[in-house]
Amino acid sequence: MESRDASLVSRDPEVMSGAVCFFGARVPVKKLLDYLAWLRLHWTPKLSIPRE
């Protein structure tokens, strides 16, 4: 199996004030984690499934 030496995240003081972001994007990792935590608390699955 081939090994890749690529990072999914990067930190650059000149990009997003040095926040840890996904490589090649200006999306801070903390924003995604905060969003997933919010979903965990606020998302409710549908309790009933429509049947034919």
Give the count of helical stretches: 1
Radius of gyration: 18 Å
Distance between the termini: 48 Å
Provide the helix percentage.
25-40%
Shape: elongated
Category from helices, strands and their pairing: alpha+beta
Uncertain runs: none
How much strand?
5-15%
Compute the number of strand runs: 2
Quaternary organisation: single chain
Mean pLDDT: 83
Strand order of the largest sheet: 1-2
SSE series: EEH
**Sheet bearing the most strands, described?**
2 strands, antiparallel
Features:
single chain, 52 residues, alpha+beta, two-stranded antiparallel sheet, 1 helix, 27% helix
Describe, in plain words, how this protein is organized in 3D.
By secondary structure, the protein is α+β, with helices and mostly antiparallel strands. It has a domain at 9-42. It is built from 1 helix and 2 strands. It has one helix spanning 29-42, and strands at 9-10, 21-22. It has a two-stranded antiparallel sheet with strand order 1-2.
Task: Give a short summary of the structure.
This protein has a domain at 9-42. It has 1 helix and 2 strands; from the N terminus they run ββα. The chain has one helix at 29-42; strands at residues 9-10, 21-22.
Spell out the blueprint of helices and strands.
Blueprint (H helix, E strand, L loop, with lengths): L8 E2 L10 E2 L6 H14 L10
